[in-house]
Each structure stands twice: as structure tokens, then as C-alpha cells.
Queue: 3 jobs
Job 1
Amino acid sequence: MENESNLDSVNKDIKKRDNSLRKIYAEKAISQIPRLISLQDRSPLSPSYGSFHRDYWLDKTSDFPDAVRQFGVQSLALVYKNEMPGNIFYSKKIIKDWAIAGLRFWAKIQHKDGSFDEFYPNERGWVGPTAFTSFTSIEAYKILKDEMRDEDRSLLENAFRRAANFIIKGESEEDHLANHHAMACLATWKSYEVLGDSNLKEGYEKLWEGFLSYHNSKEGWSTEYDGIDPGYLSATVSFLSKIYQSNPASEILDVVKQSIDSCSYFVYPNGFYAGSMGSRNTLHFYSHGFEVFAKEIPLAGTIAEKMLLALSENKLVPPEIISDRYVFYRVPEYLQSYIDYYEETDYLPPLPYEKEKLSKYFELSKIWVHSDPKKYIIANLAKGGVVKAFDKISGELIINDCGLIGQLENNKTVTTQWIDLKYRFQTTEYGWNVEGSFNIVPTNKYFTILKNIIFRTTLLFIGLYPKLAHSLKGWIRKILMLGNRPININFKRSFKINEKNIQIKDSVNNMSGVQFSRMIIGGEFFVRYVPQSRYFQSQELNINGYELDPNEIDEFNKNKKWKRSTTIEF
């Protein structure tokens, strides 16, 4: 089903980028440099000199150094080498020294097989800690190598080689994340550039083929576990752009064009992006790739401009609200976006929500989109009918409905917001139906003292057997994130656009034999465990779900059936 028109009164005139916004990238990033430096052990006599993991070296609340925190070396190298608005760190020798110390510490904590740890000791993570930190360390090394001692250059180049060879061996921990495969390509390509080893180039080509197996060329998106996730799709665009800058291959451009087009549907009239529409619920937007490709792909310029404006209004996920672990990712992304900002755009094409007439259904991702002069609506049927609707005149979010979530009397949490291949779908130009079974939410699990002792003891054992580390990582992913746990509670959700309103109908039939203690319909909620998610956004202040009161719960448990119809006037 597809019906699309490019007519749009707002976008008939040629638009150019607002160069005054460019400084927002630098301001958001540089404001966090003192935070990054404060997280680093800056004492030259300390055995952990250079570590950015403050929980480890100072607070003593972690029993191992998280390699991902060494991402900070790239930010320090970038502010040391580049003049930018408000950059008091430019050309300061001490910043260079701290960056090099961070690089040395990164090499120091590498395992013999080339891998690194992120979440727990002896993790030996494939991309999460190893490829990501290899890439950023290489980027910092390229900036600083002429000012390094020979022994430091040798130390780092050996570490790059070991890490690249580990990455080239491929996925072995139930990863199933396209952005990780893109990062594996990026880290290996950068290793090849620095070391000039033809084996690394062959390894890159092998990894590229692996990445393509996760890219859906029919609809232009890449798989994150079991569906499309726009937040991480923007990350994939960013990672591929960094390869493209020195390797402008047509196959990269083809993938990126499709990916940018897919991302455009998740740029919303109120300035926010992605969120609960995605398979991983991520809200973040990686901007650098869109700046890099704005010259060749005008739509990238449109998205970059809209998202930069949103960033200036403290939307998206600004670095200042990100946890210490992940702020390291965002800062260099914005620094590079400032450096590679592209303003020579003669025309910014309209986004999907800016079109007067658009009706589209992506059969494979189950994304349903509608735009008319008054409203923009997007739904993910694969997640049980998660839907957002916007008033285009005011830009207001009118409907934010993540489906149904409930608590059973046995304390299990169940929801319709779960990707399940057994769901059944029907779509038209003006609506859709989805039906299936509730799934049990697996993420409400916590460590106890006993569980932690058992887990740490296991980690000591698998330290002797590296292959077991990958099996453990895959097992953890299955417990917290993957798979279906259906329960015999059926639901049906229908959505219909009428002449003057929108109607949502929900019905539930509980045949499980377990009664509900609570149930909430609509609103914003997340059920899949994803570390880079669940950040606060100001739009949440106006989002409310509906919770059944005790009398309604009693009636539902008595009859085993429940129905509700909601009408939203436009």
C-alpha cells in the first residue's frame, strides 16, 4: 500500500541551512569536556593513570575497569586539535598528555586475544567494548601520533592489530545488531588505514558482507535484534559515513541513501525522534553521518537541520542527561558534526510529515505511516500497534500509545508491546488491525548478594576459557532481551482514521487462568532491556496512559474479557 505526494506549501520555497545553529554542536559537546576529564584518573603516579572509569579508580564500586569509558580519548584529542566556539582546551599540552594516558591505559587492559570488557570481568565483548574503543583509540592516535613517543606508538599499533584480528573473527555472542556490524567494519577499516596490513582489508570485506546480511535492501533499514530501530539506524549511518570519508564506495552510498530515507519517517513534527516506535526504544540521534552525506543526499541535510534545531531546544537526548557510561559516545559525535557541518545546501527536500498526502505501509518492518494537511501518524504493528499521532498545525503530540501493559497476581508483567512473528495484521490506507497474544516481560530481574557471588565466581572460571565468555554473553541476551514468552491472554487492537476523528479499539480475552492485579493502556512505557534508552524527554510531561481502577479490574477478572474504545477529535 503506497500513496505519496510531494506537494507541500511549507516546502515549495528553496530552504537553506541556518549556519547560526552550527555552534550548538560545539556547545553541547564542549560543555561536557570538564565532566569527561573529571571521570579520568589524571595522577601520573597512579597505576590506573588514564582510566576514565571513576567508579573503578576512585569510588571503588566496580571491581574491573570498563573499557568503553576509554572512548573519552577521542573527545580530548578532538578538542586539543580543533578550534571551536568556547573551546578553552584547544592546544593545551595537558589535554594531549591526558589523552595519551587514556590510550596507554586502554592498551593496558586489553586481553591477550585482543578483546576488552565492558559490563563485567572476562566479558571479552566483540563490538561493544572492542570495536567501539578500537575505533575511537585509532581516531585519537591519528590526531596525536606525531606528538607521541616511539614506545607509545608501538604499544598502540600492536593493540590495534590484536583488536582488529579479534573483531574479524566475527560475531559469536548472539549479537544480531546491525549497528554493531557496521562498527566492526569501521574499526577494522580504520585499523587497515593505520597499519596498512592487506589481511585487515580482507577482514573488512568479510565483515562488510556480514553487515549486508542485516540490511534490508527492499525497505532500506537494518535489523536491530528483530526489527527496525531508528535511533540505532542513525548510528549505522554515522559509522558508515566515517568509512565513506576515506573509502567512498558506491555500495556504502547505496545503503546509506536507503537508511537516511527510512530515518526520515521518524523525525516528528514536535522535533523529537524515534523512541518507542523502534525495536530497541532508542531516542538518540547520531548526527555526524547526516552532516557527512548532506552534500550528496539532500534529505540528509533536511534531517540534520531539523535535528540540530531540536537539539538547540533541548530535545532529543542531550549529553548532559546521559549516564557516565554513554556520555562518551555523544561528545565526539557532536564534535565531529561541528567539524564536518555542511551548509552549502541549495534545497532541503520535505520530510514525510511535511507532505500533504502520504500513505505508506512497510510490509517487512510493519511500519504504517499517514500524513495529510492536518496530522501525521506513525505506527509499528510489529510491536502490537504502538502508535503516535501529531497535530501538524500546532506540532503537538496528540496520541502516544504504547499498547497494553499489565501485572498479574503472580507478579509477572505482561504486554502487547513485544515483537512477535505470530501476530496477525490487516492494513488499509486509513487504518489497521493487529491481534495476537500478550508476552511476558523478561527484564524485571535484579542481582541479590547470592546471585552476584555466583555470577562473579562464574566469571573467574570462564576467564580460563574465552569461548565460554561468548556463550555467557549470548545467554544473558536471551534472558534479558530476546525471544518470545507468550501467555494465553489474547488481544486485538484496531486503529481507524475517520473524517473528523481517530478511533482506537482494544479488546482482551484472558484464558491463562491467572488474574490481573493492574492494567494500563496507552502512554509511554518501555519493556525491552536496552542500556541506551529510557532517557527523559520533555514531551513525556503531556503523555498519560489510562489505568483500570479496582472495580474495572475486578470486572475484568470476573468476565475474563475487556473492551475499550477511544475517540480522539481533530
Job 2
Amino acid sequence: MRIKVFSKRFKEDERGAILIIAALMLTMLMGFMALGIDVGVLYFQQKTLQTRADLAAVSAASNLKADPRTRAIETIEGNDLEEGSLTAIEYGRFIRDPELPPEDRLAARDLSDTDVNAARVTLTTQAPLYFAQVFLDEDTTRLQAKATAARYDTASFSLGSRLVRIEAGLLNAVLSEAVGTTVKLDVLDYEALADADINLLDFSDALATRLGITAGNYEDLLIADANIADVAGALLDANPAGDLTGALTALINSGTKELLNVSGLILIQGEDITALAPDLLPEITVSARDLLNASADIINADRHVATRLDLGIPGLTSIDLDLLVGERAVDSGWITVGERGTTLHTAQVRLKLDLAFGPSVLNGVNGGLDITSINLPIYIEAGSATVTLSSLDCSATTPGDVIATFDTGTDPLTGGTGTHAAEIFLGELNEPLEFGNTTKPLNQADWKAADFLGTYIRPLGLPLLDAVITIKAHAPLAVSEQAQVSFTLGDLTTGGTSLERTFGSGRVLESVAAALVSNADLDIELRAAGISLGLVNSLLNSVLSTVEGILGDILASLLPPIDAILDALLEILGIGIGEADLTLHGVACDRLLLVR
């Protein structure tokens, strides 16, 4: 009976319940305090440790040639950490490739290797625990932070022929093709554009404003599309000199809608564009004319620019030009900013020249034939040129010290760098449209014989007959004769033309005339209706044999005017067949960045 009463009383007794609830709540409160206070403290200490690691990495990277480990230790000790906190320090070449996982971007190197440009430090420390001790039975926990800093020694350089120089007529044709309307600038306009020095940072900010992009947002700017009117407007904004106003206003008002990607003009290698651009771009100065020319070059890729020229050369009765610029190689800009190993390509160029001469140009070299006309269809394909920044020595101190070296190569057909072998063809394409297909290399099988010499013959007392000698020939042009091109600290200090180099082969026809003669295929055709070829076959063979015998003399007679034509034309276009123009715009040394 008593047990039942006691049991009932115990069930109804609520005294002491608050103690149990308080005990349970206290445990929860301790957990929340551990989460709020300890985790907050640990987060703060982790951020502090990361900051110290960043400082240590920067100290090490900035002293790679002067005991970087000691500099890193001095930095962490100056920030209230012991030397033992530095648990690891690594050196190597930082590879700016966003395709690689961050942990794989530091290629380990020995510190004595000249290739080393980065340091990675690892700091480890024990952080105290407070309320979390109740649950973990530990009064400290291990924190670790890693940081990588890299020196960014860069060069800004451009490669290739700007397609035009100062001659207004042909430059107007190229710009007109790019903007889709007639451009009529005069020589004074082009001289003003050539003399106007444009700071690339000012130009970039002005172009961003024109495109509705926030100034300083270089990541968006360098992938944006612009037209030549935008480029001309940005040039005017960056340098509002009175001499430029007329020329640039004409382009701004052209109404062009043809677009180019800004990265085709300016390319900064790596993924640190936002951090690097403000330091690198102010040190690059280019002319307004070159920026416009490069813009037209990009827009006119795989597009014909056809015109008739008057070069004033004796014996030349007419010259028709068809110019085609191939697409630029992927991942290259007109100006590229990058580290050692950065590669830049030129665009491929194709030229078609239809030359017509008067008989007097032969100076009596005709083998007794009554020559009435001379035509020479010349196709020239200049393959792309490539350079690679092979070394950049920021320790240069005297004017004679080499600060930048580029590989230009001597045998580009086996890969890599250098000016690719160009080719010259005499004749006509079987499929004329193939000339515009720059994805397909031209080769001898694509050609058929073309009219070369017109003459009269009088076989066996028959009336005067028209005969035409046709020709087909092919020869390769020389490749680059220089393996490397170098610039000294003195060149960089002097600037101007000292920062320009031309490398490649030499003159065109002097190196291939003999090959053209030895490879030429000649044939003869009658152009008079109703005449049986059988009646005059032997005489025709005799005529052809005569022409073959004096072909070398005929071509030799044509070489001086053709040389003059090509020299004048290539000077107007700014093209060196088998050659490339390399310009070093500037060098930026010892830019330190925290990277990942």
C-alpha cells in the first residue's frame, strides 16, 4: 500500500525539474558558445595566419636571389610568430594557366635555376580553444595557411607587318574595306596619326567608356567587341590634339558596323589581368596610325583588298593588286603582354599581282620574235611569322646588357618559331576562289599555265597569226636567317627605332629567279580561228624552243622592273616577304603578385 502511495506522490512531485532543464540547456549553451566564440576566434586567427603567410611569400618571392628563406623568417618573426611556424617553403616556376588546378601551377625548381620566379610558404601554428575544450578534450587545435607569390617580369611586344605605311591611296583602300564605306584621308592626316603617341592605358580606359564598360574593368574590356569608329573615338579621347580631329572624326562618322575583338589588339597573358593592367599598360606607347592599321588588319582578315596601282615604273603599262590577310592565330594580339615563353604570331599574307609590260622592257632580248605583249601573273604567299620571348633579364644594369631575347628560328618548317617559308607562283589558279581560302595552303598542283608572251608568227606564207606563250612556275622563298633577336637595356632607354627589329630572308626575286627559270613550264597556243595546228606544228615547236632558250634572258630583263614594282609595293604595304617586324614596346620588372 505504501509503495503505491509513494509511487503516486513521486509522479505528482514537480520539485527540482528546473535543475534538469537548466543542466540540459547549459550543455546546449556551452555548445553554442563554443560554436560562436571558438569558431569566430579560430576564423580570425586563420585569417591572421593567412595574412602572415602572404607577407612571408611576398618577402621570399621578392628576394629569390638573396636568401629568400631568411627573408621569410624575418617577416613571420616580425609578425609575432616563431621560426618553427614556417613548416615548408618551395620554389619554382609559376605557370599562369587557368586550366591547371591551383596546386599544380607551381612547377618545382631548384633555387639556383634561373627559371625560378615564385615561392610558396606553409605556416603552421596551434590556436587555443576555450569553450570547445569541454567537447574535444583538447586545449589547442592546429591551423595551417599556404601562400604563393610570383614575380611578374613581362615584356610588351608586337610582331608583323602593319599592312600600310604613309601612302594615303592604298591605306584609304584598306580602311575603306574595313569600314565598308569610302575613306578619303590625305597624307597630312596619316602623318598626324603616325606622330600621335598614345598611352595604352589611356586608350583602354577611353575605349571602355565608349563601349559602356566601367573604366578599369580590363577583364570585360579585353573580351569585348568594338568597331573602328569606337577605336577612332577612343584615340581622340586619349589624345584630343587638333591635328587628329579631322582624320578621326571621319572614321567616327563612317557608320561602320564591322566588329573586332579587343583581344586582337591587346592581349595580356595569364589570369591576373585586373591586377596587372594598371601597372603594365601605362608603360606602353603606340602611334594612333598603328592602332588603326592593326584594327583594319583584324577586320579585313580573309577579305580581299583589290585596287589598281600606278607606280610610275618604266615599261610597266598596268598593275592590278589583290591583297588578302589571313586570320590571326588564336591567342595572340597585335600587342601582347606576357612572361618568358609568351608567343606571338603574325597574320598570313597573300598577294596577287597582274603585271602588264610593253615590249620595250625586253631591251631587244626576244630571240627574233615579234613580241606584242608581256603579262606576268604573280602570286606570293608569305606564311605566318612567329616569335617567342625566350628570356627576360631584369637584372640588367648597363646599357650593353641584353634585357630581352626572342627566338625567331631558322628552320620553321620543322615546327616552333621563325618566319615560315614563303612561295612564289607564276600562272593562274585552277579554282580562283582557293586564293581566298587561307585555311588551305597553296601548292603547285593548284596552278595552270597563264598567258605570258604574245607574239606574231608567219608560217609557210600563211597570214599573220597570233600566238601566245603560256607559263607556269613555282619556287620557294628563303626562310628566316636569324635564330634569335635581342634588345639591350640601352635600346630600351633610347626607345624609338632602337626597339624595332626586322628579321627574315632578303630580297625576293634575287633568291628565286633561277628556281623559277628552271621550274618553268612553257607552252604555245594559236589564237587564230580556222588554222590547223598540224600545218604549223614544226614551226610552233621551233618558236617554243626559241623562247625556252632565251627564257632566262627574258626573265632577267623583267627582274629590274619587277624588283622595282615589288620594292615600291611592299614599301607601301609595309610587308617584308619572308620577313617580320618585331617591336619591343616595354619591359615591366619585379611586379609581385599573390597567386593561386
Job 3
Amino acid sequence: MMKNILLKSLLFCIVLLECISCNYLDIVPDNMATIDYAFRNRTACEKYLYTCYSYRPRHGDFQWDPAIAATDEVWCHSYINTAGRYIARGMQKVNNPYMNFWSGAKAGSDPVIPALWDGIRDCNIFLENVDKVTDLPSYERDRWIAEVKFLKAYYHFYLFRMYGPIPIMDVNMPVSATPEEVKVYREPVDNVVDYIVNLLDEAAAGLPSNDDLVEGTEAGRVYNLVAKAMKARVLAYAASPLFNGNTDYASLVDNRGVQLFPQTYDPEKWKRAADACLDAIEMAHAQNKRLYTDVDPLLTTQNDTFKLQTTIRQAICDRWNCELIWGSTNNAQYTLAQRCQSRILRVGPEMGTIVRTEWAPTLNTAEKFYSSHGVPISEDKDWVQNNWYSKRYEIRPEPSSGAEKYYVKEGEKTVYLHYNREPRFYADLGFDRGIYFGNGYNKFPDNVKHCEFCAKEYSGVASASESFSITGYGAKKMHSFKDAMTANDYSVEYYPFPIMRMADLYLLYAEALNEYSGPSGEVYKYVDMIRERAGLEGVQTSWAKYSISPSKVSTKEGLRDIIQREREIELVFEGQHFWDLRRWKKIQDFNEQPKGWNVILGDTQDLFYTVTSVAQTPVEFSVRDYFWPINEKEISINPNLVQNFDW
């Protein structure tokens, strides 16, 4: 009922804008009696507050989140033709762009992608009218205002990350605005960043702490640490090569002659980002946030190997744990289609087609994880001469000793690539002949399952069904060891998908410090905290003992590469890699053709272990693909909006 009222209250705005050939919903409607009705009392106002929240992009959702659907960390069957997969294949277009958060997108009459300008408009309406509510206590009013300021800042940031320089919509225009007045301009990068950061500062000052949230009923609502952490992320983006002295976009100048991208690199932006990260870290520690190292009570009798692997997974899957700063509560990852076509592993024939492993990590992703020595396998003294793809037969004495028995099914063979890897490799990936701990199979060795990805095996093609991984890997990390599945049903442990967690914040801080002043004890400290949780030695120790390039950790450039690799590993499948490669200006990495094993024809291991390209056609990205195109229809309506480079 209330949603219908709100939609009707904004109808005039839509009609007006259509009449003047501009679809920005940023003009105050003149039917103020209806708007007044929406703010007549506390209950109605609270509903409008939730309307402002409703535009949040669905992090972790395969249908909504480009960083999940369009990433090169995973690949999907060619028949999965969603908007995100088209982007992953280099097929973005300027007329009716895929995953268009600028204008929004619908499937029939249902919104599939929200128009974030609509969200910003509704935030402005809330801020302009909340003072009219007479029965709203001042402390609650102040909090709600801070929440909406955060959402307004976040929606601006989400658009900024996708499109680069954007208009700033601080207030809605009045109905008396002329057609020329509503033809807004995109603002320069630094102006947009300053606007977002100032809003986040205002929000943080008025938001409660995490300790003051009501558990259960207020889960997912923002608090002061979320604003602080998001400020750190915004400033890290602003300091990164994509936005800091990016001469590739020197030609992006509007019809006023305003250059939208700064052309001079400013190292002080990294200092500003580092300060914001430290500020957020100190607040996080004061609110008892830390890296998740808790051992689930169900694991107390397990061996140390399974405890470590599962604890790494539970840093994501243990809901509202001590590491999570902000989690998404509005995605659809727990529907049948989302769960079964994404991250779940089928580890037994009894699971039938109810469990599908179609969101498949690539071989490229598997190769990024460190060796057991904590260095890249291409740099490890003991690895560089090995043939990664050669098959290794089990030759361990019976009974087996050491941790290997917890990684690979005893008596089976797999490739050398799957041996002697770091704990996160085994925690995050399901691979052929790899042990799977969880899913109701938790008693080693009798009850523990393993994956079999060869063609016609239960984790593989399975008699030509579509329910299989196109690469021969599965994303074990993204589902709890407590999930349980059968041929006809499944049950999953709910968790909010992480938008920001402590590991991310620590690595942003290390990155910003290194970029500003180079290697230091403080940089090593925050990288090593992540590595220690993963069961690895510190970067200085690991590179000195095991790397063919031991001096790499002592240079800014070398440590930059290490920190970036650490982010790719630690935050794999969480939607950060997609944006990180863009802000680092490493779009060319997406052009490395996605690889997997020969899952279609590989009905024996000799045939299966053949490196195979899994893309239909070669993927090609260029400088233009750092940003989304603005729909050309928008440009024709408002010529003041200069189109993004090369679109």
C-alpha cells in the first residue's frame, strides 16, 4: 500500500521529466499533499526510510552484481546468457548497456537493476521532509538523517565507480526548473570524491556504533564504522591509477571546457586514504572487530588441517561474525537458482541435479594461490622447475602421514598443481580428487567426500547434464560447511554477503601506506596479519626463504605486486577483484583467456587434465572498458553529458 502511495507521489515528477526530455528523477513534485502524507507520522516516515534502503545494489547476487557475474575469476556455460556474462565476454554496448545502474533495467515490469538516480532522488526527498514528522524523537530523527546521508553517498559512489565522473545531485530541482537547468553536467573526479567523503563524514557523526544496533531487527542497517570504512574505500579508489593522474582520459572534456579527470598524479591522495583507513581500523578495534579466527564448536574434535580450512571459510559464512563490517541482506543468493547455479559442489551421485556447480572458478584463479611456502608458484624455488600440469600418482606409505591425506583422496591421482599449496587453496576451491570437508560429510576418513570432475562423474558433466563446472573447479569458499544437500532437497546456512570486512580494510591500509611511502614495518604488519590467519609466514620471511626474487618485498613496486596478489587471494569470489583490476588500471589482465580442464571430453584423467580455453571467443578489453557507457539515449536527451571515452 505504502509503496503504491510513494510511486503515485512521484508520478508527476516522471511525467514532467518525460515532457522536457530528461529522465533524471531529481525534481520535487508539486503534489506536496501526497508527499506530506508520506511524512505524516513516524510510521510513515520509517517506511520511506526503508524505501531509501531499497535501492541498495544486491552484492553477491548473480543477477544484479557485475563483480560476481562479470568477473574473470569464474566462468560459466555458454548457455548462461545473463547481462553480467555478456560483459565478461567483452560484449558491453552503448545502446541499452548491460547492468545499467544509471537508468535502471527491467525484465518485463519487474526491476532487475535499480536506477540509482531514483534512489538518490528519494534520499533527497527524505532529507527535505523528515523535519515535518512531529512524533519522531530528535535522537531517532538524527540517526535516520545520518543513515540516508550514508545511502546517498553510497549511491553516488557506486555510480562513480561504474561511470567515473558523475553529476552531483545534492538537492532535487524544483518543478519550476527549465529544461536547460535540468540538463546537468558531470563533475570532475576530485569534486565528486570530495562530495561523497563529506557526506560520509556527516553520516558517521550521526550514526550509532555497532554495539548500539538491536540484534536481529536492525541487522544490515548502517552504523558509524560502515561510513568510516566506506570513506577509506572511496579515498583508496580516488588515489588509485584509474582516477589519479590518468592521462588515458585526457580527452574527456565537457562542452564547458572542464577536464573531468585530473591529469597530474598526486601522492598525497594515498596519504589521505591511509589516514582514513587507520581511522576506520581504530574505530573497528574499539568495537571489537577483528580477523575471524574462531573455531566452530562442531570442529573441536577435528584435526588442525580441517579446522584451519573451515575457519577460513567461516570468516565468510559465519553470519554477523567479528570480521564483518557491512554485509548485504538484500541479495537472492539463497534461492534455488542462485545457490544451485553458483557455488555449491556436488560431491556424490545421490545429489542428482539439485546441486549445480555452474559458477566455476577458472584455472587462472587456481594458479594465483600461493604455494605452501606462501609465495607465488611461479616464484617458488621448489616450483619453478615443476610441470604444474603433470599428473602425480599417490605413492605415500600406508597409512598416510602428514596433511596431504586431508587434501587429496587417498589412492587417487591429480596434477602437481593441486599439491603443496597454501591452506586458502584447499579452503576456497573444490578440485578433482580433492577432499571436501562439510556438506554433512565431516567424519574423516570414513564419512569425508571428495570431488570427481571428470566427464560423466558426479562432480563433472554427469551424463550430459548442464549441472556441471565448465572449468573443473568449484567455489567451496562461498558456502558453509554446515550446508546439507540430498538428491531432492538442500538446506543452507544464511549469511550476509560481505561488502566490507576487516581483511579488506587491513589490505587497503597496507596498500595506501606502501603507495605513499614504500615498504615499512607497518605495511608488513597488516599484510602479515592476513597471512598468519591463513597459516603462512610473514612476507619478509617467506620471500627470503623460498622466493627466487628475495628482494621483491623491499621495493615499493615489488610490495605493490605482493599486496595486490594478497587481495586477489584473500578476497577471491567476494566481488573485489572485478573493481580492483579496474582501479589499478590492469584491464589487460582480463584478456588472459579463461582456462579450465577438458571437462566435456575428459572421461579419463589422462584426457581431463588437458588445459582448455573455456571462452567461446577470445575476450578482448581495452581502455574504454574501465567504465560503463552512458546510454546513448541519455546523451541525446542531455548533450551536457559527455560520453565516456571511446564509446
